[in-house]
Structures are given as structure tokens and as C-alpha cells.
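Before relying on records like the one below, remember that each one covers exactly one chain. Contacts with other chains, cofactors or solvent are not represented anywhere in the record.
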Amino acid sequence: MRYYRALSHFFALIKSLLSTGVILKMSRRNTILFLLAGFLWGIPYLFIRVAVDPETGFSPAIVVFIRVFIGALILVPISIYDKSLFVAIKGWKYIAVYALFEMVIPWILIGTAEQSISSGLAGLLVASVPIFSTIISSMYGDKSVWHPRRLFGMAIGFLGVFLLVGIESFTGSSDPIAIFMMLGASVGYAYAVIYITRKMPGVSGVAINAIAMAMTALFYSPALFLLWPDHKISLSATYSVIALGVFSTGIAFAVFFTVMAEIGPTRASLVTYMNTAFAVVLGVLILSEPLTIGIIVGLPLVLIGSYLASRKVNA
């Protein structure tokens, strides 16, 4: 029954994307890249959950280091090849702030949180990013935020988060501190993208993230010596952190910015909903995580709210 519910949530999301024309209006190549980006950014929560296991895995800080180190090894050569790295590096001060709110803070929060909550719940909470993005955009003068439809979306989304946090906490299914860590990471994600888009418009996203990953790797490098675990590291944790760096960091960013260049940032941002569906389904199917009442109630509300809140309208 749990597996059936997880799959039904996933296929319901695919149906909603088809009904809005998001997928139907793409070429076959872009559709494949869109789905691939959703998968690559949905599976990291599973990899992180395994990699930070307190008994057989790494510390969250080491996972962040390995992840961004591998990611930088992939993205730096790409951005050197297309000559975008040298343009982006001129804005290193802005990229440092972006790295702080996109990687340094969120990824340590997510890794720490996933030591006590499921990967599916983590992925679901990150789906609140569009809601926080809408609020932050309003602070920068986006008047369309106050359109009734977007306000309704924010209300629905926050209701979903409220019910999710409440149900998970009061039923004892999840640690409330870990849940708020995930929400803090979501706020960081939302601010980082808005900040760097305003400060470095038109600059390659691959190059910006290549530099941000290199900076983050430098920041967390002391963890290799200070926080290396004294227990034996399992092969599953080792493989998970390598896969996290290769597929869900390096390749995922390259794929996402490729598809965004083809279909535009608005439609590309809808990959967030694919991430969530993959995170929940993979957690249930592979890690046998419970599909809790909080997730069943909160998932549709957060996704619908995020979708409505992030849809652009005329001011």
C-alpha cells in the first residue's frame, strides 16, 4: 500500500505537468533533460541519507566537501572550455555570497537534518523554495507577488508546511529541529538565486556554480582532518557520496543550466516539483522509508502552493 501511494503521488505530478503544457511544449531532447534534471536533483536526498549515517557514514561537513570537490572537478573544465569561467570569476565577491547561501549553509543543514529525518521528507520540505522566493522577490519590488493567485498559493503552501511540521512533530515521526533546518536551507536556496541573478545577470550558471563549489570545498577542507569519523565507513556510504558529487552535483548543475537555456528559467524552475516527487518515491522504494500522514497531507499542498506562488502574472 505504501509503495502504491508513493507511485500514485509521482504519476499525479506527471499528469499535472502534462496538463499545464510544461512538458508537451518541449522538444524531445529538452523533455529528456528536464526529467533527468528532476531525477538528479531528487535522488541526492537518498544519497545524503546513506552518506551521513551516524554509524556507518561520514560527518555532514565531509559529505559537503567531497560533494563540491567532485562537482568542481566536473564544472570547472566545462566552464574553461566555453570560456565562461574567466568572465564569472570577475564577480568572485558576489559568488562568495551566493556560495554561502546556496551551498555552505544549506548543505550542512540538510546533511545534519537527514541524520534524523527521512530523505523523502527532506525533499518535500525543499519544495517550499518557490514560496520563500516569492516573498523575497516582493522585498525587491516585485509587485506581482501581491496578485490574489500568488497570495493564495503562498497561503496554501504555508498551510501545507504548517500541517507537515505539526503532524510530523506531534506524532513523533520526525525531529522538529531537523525540519526547521530543512526550512532554513530552503530560505537560503531562495535568497541565493535571487541575489546572484541580480548581481550577475547573463553570466553562465555553470561557471558561477563551478567557482562557488571550489570556494565551498576550500571552506570545508579542514573537516577532512578535524571531523573524520573513527568508525568504519561502509561501502554504501562511500558510493553514495561519490554518486552525490558526480551525478547530483556536477552533472545535475550542467544539465539544469543546459535545459534552462533552452526553455527559459520560468519553466525550468518547475523541475523543483519533479525533485520532490523523485525524493519521496525513491525514499519509499529504495530505503523503505515510511510514507507518513504528514507527507501524504503536506505533499500536495506544498506542491500546489509552490506552483501557484511561483507563477508569474501581470502586476
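The longest helix spans residues 235-263.
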